[in-house]
Structure formats: structure tokens, C-alpha cells
Design brief:
Elements (H helix, E strand, L loop, with lengths): L1 H15 L4 H4 L2 E2 L4 E2 L1 H28 L2 E5 L20 E2 L2 E2 H11 L4 E6 L5 H6 L8 E6 L5 H8 L9 E5 L2 E3 L3 H14 L3 E9 L7 E5 L5 E6 L10 E9 L15 H12 L2 E6 L6 E3 L3 H17 L7
Parallel strand pairs: 3-6, 3-8, 6-7, 10-14
Antiparallel strand pairs: 1-2, 4-5, 8-13, 9-15, 10-13, 11-12
Helix pairs in contact: 1-3
Length: 316
């Protein structure tokens, strides 16, 4: 996982500072300190190691993933639950859906999270504040006029660093292996520098109600159709609502207008030659789009049992 690789990298840099006695010169028993020659060698090695560590740490900080949770929707199909709260704040087993999402992100090492607000915008900041109680730093982006999934990301362009951006739809309840998804994305970028988006995908039974994704033999996205007609269905693979995008992709999103990932951005990227790839989640992954009262009731039945089985994971 990404966090494991980062941990090993920092550990290796730290170990470089430990210098064998043979490189530090003979010990001076009279002074109880290394010889002058040894001091010079040790100072050189420590300064060189610190410079290398600083360079690696700075590079890592720039590439550290950040996340945006899309939470601006009104959730009209979940009324009356959403009359006094935005959709991601509906309670699941006594806690807001958004709390599970934020703990899940933190469990995979993500600390900087942005959340867009529109409907009942005061509720989320009042509950989570700056995020420090969850070990997070939360940035809020208020939308006077709703901007759509991609438009919301464009408005928060200043939040991005040089690393990949995890985008999570706020009505998704999941225990998806985010570390595996990030690993796949980074491996894809290394293999294909033109890659800009990695979508996590799952098999659906209702293909006319979701965005369908076609893949070639290498996992590259060949087509994307948002909520197709029955005669347009060509696969059962759909976007889960968890995706990774590279910062340069944001430049393809026009500012200050409504812009949707499925309706606008993905077709545009395909047309302009920006590579997108799909990662099919394992069958045992729990993922539920809580968009209706029926799905909400399903989550209330299933999620407590799922949590009890996965209580060892860091985000439960």
C-alpha cells in the first residue's frame, strides 16, 4: 500500500544517519569523543543524509494524496431525512455517513480533505469543525449555485497539490481498499504518463441508472455513457463514485459553470486523448450508493454487521 511504501522510504532515510564506527575514525579515550577527522566525516554524512531526506520528504509532500468529498446535493429522494441536513449527514448506525467516509480516508493516510457545501451548508462545518478531532485538516468550499461534480473540483483547484486527488461522492458508503486503488493509479501513471484518471468500477444490476464504463484489454477506458437507454447498454461495469485524478486534469474543467464528470468531463477527456483507466473492485468490497430510502434502509441493516466483521481496520 502507498502508506507502507512511504513508511519504508522515510525509515530508510532515517537509517542512513546511523554511521558505523569505522567511518567515524578512532575513538579518543582521553577526550571520550570521536577524533577530529571522525567529526568531519560524521558531520558530512549527517548533513548529506539530511539533505537527501529533506529532498525526499519535500517530494513526497508534494505527491501526498489529498481528497475531495462531494457533499453539496440536496438528497431529495431521501426526504424527510434530508429536510434539515445534507445527504452525507444522514445517520447510519448512529453516526453520519460522512463520518465513516472521513475516517476511511484518514485510515489510508489522507489528512487533507476538502468538502463542498451548498444545501444546508452550516450543518457539516458545525459537526466536524476543522477536522482535527478526526486527525484531519478540512477545507470547505461553499457553492452559492451548485456546480456539479467536476465543477466543484474546479472551484477547489487551489486546494490541490502535485499529488493525486481522491474524489469521493458523498452518498457512497464503502470499505473499498483505497490503498490498492492508489497503488493501481500510481503504477498506471508510471506505465502511461498520459493517464489522468483512474475510476474504481463495480458490476451493477441496474445499468440504465448509472454511468457505464467500457474498458479495453489493458484496462483503459474506451467509452463512458451516463445512464444509458436499455438499447445502449454494453456492459455492467459502472463508476463507484470513488476515483483518482491527476491535478493537470482540472485544467480541462471550465470555471464557474455547472460541469459533471459523467456528462461532460469524461467524454471530453476521451475526445482529447487523456487516458483514463478502470480498476474493478474485489467482489468482497462493500459499496452502496445511499440515494433512496430503500438503499438507506439497506445500509441500516447491513452496515453494523459489516463494521463488526471489519473492526480491526483503522477506519471503524
Amino acid at each position: 500500500m502507498l502508506t507502507d511504501r512511504v513508511g519504508r522510504r522515510l525509515g530508510e532515510c532515517g537509517r542512513i544517519v546511523t554511521t558505523p564506527d569505522s567511518l567515524c575514525g578512532p575513538w579518543s579515550e582521553s577526550r571520550g569523543t570521536p577524533s577530529a577527522k571522525g567529526d568531519m566525516v560524521l558531520d558530512y554524512m549527517i548533513s548529506g543524509s539530511m539533505a537527501e531526506w529533506s529532498s525526499t520528504a519535500a517530494e513526497h509532500a508534494l505527491r501526498t494524496p489529498r481528497a475531495i468529498v462531494l457533499a453539496a446535493g440536496e438528497g431529495t429522494r431521501l426526504r424527510p431525512l434530508t429536510l434539515d441536513r445534507p445527504k452525507p449527514m444522514v445517520p447510519i448506525d448512529g453516526k453520519p455517513l460522512l463520518e465513516y467516509t472521513l475516517k476511511w480516508l484518514r485510515g489510508y493516510g489522507i489528512q487533507d480533505v476538502a468538502i463542498n457545501l451548498h444545501y444546508r451548508p452550516e450543518v457539516i462545518p458545525h459537526y466536524f469543525g476543522d477536522g482535527s478531532a478526526l486527525g484531519l485538516c478540512i477545507t470547505y468550499s461553499h457553492e452559492d449555485v451548485i456546480l456539479g461534480t467536476a465543477g466543484a473540483v474546479r472551484k477547489m483547484a487551489g486546494f490541490l497539490n502535485e499529488g493525486p486527488l481522491v474524489v469521493v461522492y458523498g452518498d457512497v458508503l464503502t470499505d473499498l481498499d483505497l490503498g490498492a486503488l492508489l497503488d493501481f493509479h500510481l503504477q498506471t501513471i508510471a506505465r502511461d504518463p498520459s493517464a489522468g484518471v483512474t475510476m474504481s468500477l463495480y458490476h451493477v444490476s441496474n445499468p440504465t441508472e448509472v454511468g457505464l464504463v467500457g474498458l479495453d484489454d489493458h484496462g483503459r477506458v474506451t467509452c463512458f455513457v451516463e445512464k444509458p437507454k436499455p438499447e445502449e447498454v454494453f456492459t455492467d461495469l459502472a463508476n463507484t463514485g470513488v476515483l483518482i485524478i491527476e491535478p493537470n486534469v482540472v485544467a480541462h474543467i471550465p470555471p464557474n459553470v455547472f460541469y459533471d464528470f459523467g456528462l461532460h468531463l469524461f467524454p471530453q477527456l476521451l475526445q482529447s486523448g487523456v487516458a483514463m483507466y478502470g480498476w474493478v473492485i474485489p467482489d468482497e468490497t462493500y459499496l452502496l450508493d445511499i440515494g433512496t430510502l430503500e438503499k438507506y434502509a439497506q445500509a441500516q441493516r447491513e452496515w453494523p454487521q459489516r463494521c463488526s466483521k471489519c473492526s480491526a481496520l483503522p477506519f471503524f
